[in-house]
Amino acid sequence: MASTRALNAYRSALRATKIAFTNDTTRLLAARSKIKHEMKLENSSTHPKYTPAERIKLLENVSNFLIHNIVQGVKKTEDKNSRYTLNIHKDTELGDNEEIKKNKSRFSSGSSAVTGDNQKSNLDKAKEGVTDTYDKAASHVQPEEEKGVFQKIGDTLSGKKN
Protein backbone atom coordinates (compact mmCIF):
# COMPACT_ATOMS: atom_id res chain seq x y z
CA MET A 1 0.00 0.00 0.00
CA ALA A 2 2.83 2.42 0.83
CA SER A 3 4.41 1.79 -2.57
CA THR A 4 1.10 2.65 -4.29
CA ARG A 5 0.81 5.82 -2.23
CA ALA A 6 4.45 6.71 -3.02
CA LEU A 7 3.88 6.16 -6.74
CA ASN A 8 0.72 8.28 -6.66
CA ALA A 9 2.56 11.05 -4.78
CA TYR A 10 5.41 10.90 -7.30
CA ARG A 11 3.04 11.12 -10.29
CA SER A 12 1.13 13.94 -8.61
CA ALA A 13 4.38 15.84 -8.05
CA LEU A 14 5.34 15.50 -11.70
CA ARG A 15 1.89 16.73 -12.77
CA ALA A 16 2.22 19.63 -10.32
CA THR A 17 5.53 20.69 -11.87
CA LYS A 18 3.84 20.74 -15.28
CA ILE A 19 1.14 23.04 -13.95
CA ALA A 20 3.52 25.31 -12.03
CA PHE A 21 6.23 25.58 -14.69
CA THR A 22 4.27 25.19 -17.94
CA ASN A 23 6.15 27.79 -19.98
CA ASP A 24 9.50 27.51 -18.19
CA THR A 25 11.30 24.43 -19.44
CA THR A 26 14.47 25.13 -17.45
CA ARG A 27 12.69 25.21 -14.10
CA LEU A 28 10.33 22.39 -15.07
CA LEU A 29 13.28 20.10 -15.79
CA ALA A 30 15.15 21.23 -12.66
CA ALA A 31 12.12 20.57 -10.43
CA ARG A 32 11.47 17.16 -12.00
CA SER A 33 15.13 16.24 -11.73
CA LYS A 34 15.15 17.12 -8.02
CA ILE A 35 11.98 15.12 -7.38
CA LYS A 36 13.35 12.08 -9.24
CA HIS A 37 16.68 12.37 -7.40
CA GLU A 38 14.97 12.52 -3.98
CA MET A 39 12.71 9.56 -4.83
CA LYS A 40 15.72 7.41 -5.70
CA LEU A 41 17.55 8.13 -2.45
CA GLU A 42 17.14 5.77 0.46
CA ASN A 43 17.18 8.77 2.84
CA SER A 44 16.14 12.28 1.88
CA SER A 45 19.03 14.69 1.37
CA THR A 46 16.97 17.56 2.78
CA HIS A 47 15.18 15.64 5.57
CA PRO A 48 17.37 12.61 6.40
CA LYS A 49 15.41 11.63 9.53
CA TYR A 50 12.04 11.39 7.77
CA THR A 51 10.40 7.99 7.61
CA PRO A 52 9.09 6.78 4.22
CA ALA A 53 5.55 7.77 5.26
CA GLU A 54 6.73 11.27 6.21
CA ARG A 55 8.58 11.60 2.89
CA ILE A 56 5.43 10.60 1.00
CA LYS A 57 3.40 13.16 2.97
CA LEU A 58 6.03 15.82 2.25
CA LEU A 59 5.88 15.04 -1.47
CA GLU A 60 2.08 15.30 -1.39
CA ASN A 61 2.40 18.67 0.36
CA VAL A 62 4.97 19.83 -2.19
CA SER A 63 2.59 18.93 -5.01
CA ASN A 64 -0.23 20.82 -3.34
CA PHE A 65 2.01 23.84 -2.79
CA LEU A 66 3.23 23.88 -6.40
CA ILE A 67 -0.30 23.74 -7.78
CA HIS A 68 -1.85 26.30 -5.46
CA ASN A 69 0.94 28.73 -4.58
CA ILE A 70 3.41 29.06 -7.45
CA VAL A 71 2.59 31.73 -10.03
CA GLN A 72 5.09 32.58 -12.71
CA GLY A 73 5.54 36.02 -14.19
CA VAL A 74 6.41 36.36 -17.88
CA LYS A 75 8.30 39.43 -19.06
CA LYS A 76 6.50 41.05 -21.97
CA THR A 77 9.03 43.67 -23.08
CA GLU A 78 12.78 44.08 -22.82
CA ASP A 79 13.00 47.81 -22.05
CA LYS A 80 13.49 49.41 -18.64
CA ASN A 81 9.72 49.82 -18.23
CA SER A 82 9.15 46.10 -18.66
CA ARG A 83 5.78 44.64 -17.91
CA TYR A 84 5.04 41.17 -16.64
CA THR A 85 1.98 39.02 -16.93
CA LEU A 86 1.16 36.40 -14.32
CA ASN A 87 0.26 32.85 -15.28
CA ILE A 88 -2.64 32.40 -12.88
CA HIS A 89 -4.60 29.19 -13.46
CA LYS A 90 -7.85 27.76 -12.08
CA ASP A 91 -6.15 26.11 -9.07
CA THR A 92 -4.12 29.14 -7.98
CA GLU A 93 -4.92 30.08 -4.42
CA LEU A 94 -5.99 33.71 -4.39
CA GLY A 95 -5.86 35.08 -0.85
CA ASP A 96 -7.62 38.15 0.42
CA ASN A 97 -4.90 39.23 2.88
CA GLU A 98 -7.31 38.97 5.83
CA GLU A 99 -4.68 37.15 7.90
CA ILE A 100 -2.22 39.96 7.30
CA LYS A 101 -4.82 42.59 8.12
CA LYS A 102 -5.68 40.76 11.36
CA ASN A 103 -2.04 40.57 12.41
CA LYS A 104 -1.08 44.03 11.18
CA SER A 105 0.27 45.08 14.56
CA ARG A 106 2.60 42.07 14.66
CA PHE A 107 4.04 42.92 11.24
CA SER A 108 4.34 46.66 11.81
CA SER A 109 5.92 46.50 15.26
CA GLY A 110 9.40 46.05 13.82
CA SER A 111 9.95 42.74 15.58
CA SER A 112 10.70 39.67 13.57
CA ALA A 113 8.29 36.77 13.94
CA VAL A 114 10.32 33.61 13.51
CA THR A 115 8.84 30.17 14.04
CA GLY A 116 11.00 27.23 15.06
CA ASP A 117 10.83 23.97 13.08
CA ASN A 118 9.17 22.19 16.00
CA GLN A 119 6.26 24.68 15.82
CA LYS A 120 5.72 24.46 12.05
CA SER A 121 3.09 22.32 10.38
CA ASN A 122 4.08 19.75 7.78
CA LEU A 123 2.66 22.06 5.10
CA ASP A 124 4.87 24.94 6.30
CA LYS A 125 7.88 22.64 6.27
CA ALA A 126 6.97 21.47 2.78
CA LYS A 127 6.63 25.07 1.57
CA GLU A 128 10.07 25.89 2.94
CA GLY A 129 11.52 22.76 1.37
CA VAL A 130 10.04 23.64 -2.02
CA THR A 131 11.22 27.23 -1.94
CA ASP A 132 14.69 26.21 -0.74
CA THR A 133 14.98 23.59 -3.47
CA TYR A 134 13.62 25.99 -6.09
CA ASP A 135 16.06 28.73 -5.01
CA LYS A 136 19.01 26.33 -5.16
CA ALA A 137 17.99 25.04 -8.59
CA ALA A 138 17.36 28.57 -9.87
CA SER A 139 20.76 29.76 -8.71
CA HIS A 140 22.40 27.00 -10.75
CA VAL A 141 20.42 27.38 -13.98
CA GLN A 142 19.84 31.11 -14.19
CA PRO A 143 22.44 32.97 -16.28
CA GLU A 144 24.59 35.40 -14.30
CA GLU A 145 23.43 38.42 -16.35
CA GLU A 146 19.79 37.74 -15.43
CA LYS A 147 20.40 37.58 -11.68
CA GLY A 148 19.32 40.46 -9.50
CA VAL A 149 21.46 42.08 -6.82
CA PHE A 150 19.98 40.05 -3.97
CA GLN A 151 20.37 36.76 -5.81
CA LYS A 152 24.03 37.57 -6.51
CA ILE A 153 24.52 38.40 -2.83
CA GLY A 154 22.81 35.16 -1.83
CA ASP A 155 25.00 33.16 -4.21
CA THR A 156 28.10 34.83 -2.80
CA LEU A 157 27.07 34.20 0.80
CA SER A 158 26.29 30.56 0.09
CA GLY A 159 29.70 30.03 -1.49
CA LYS A 160 28.64 29.83 -5.12
CA LYS A 161 30.92 31.53 -7.62
CA ASN A 162 29.59 34.44 -9.64
Description:
There is one protein chain. This protein is mainly alpha-helical and 162 residues long. Helices cover 57% and strands 5% of the residues. The protein has helices at residues 2-20, 25-40, 52-69, 98-102, 104-108, 122-141, 149-157; strands at 72-75, 84-87. The model has no long low-confidence stretch (mean pLDDT 77). InterPro entries: Complex1_LYR_LYRM7 (IPR045298), HSP9_HSP12 (IPR007250), MZM1/LYRM7 (IPR050435). One of its GO terms (molecular function) is protein folding chaperone. Residues 122-149 have a biased composition (Basic and acidic residues). Pfam families: HSP9_HSP12 (PF04119).
Features:
mainly alpha, 162 residues
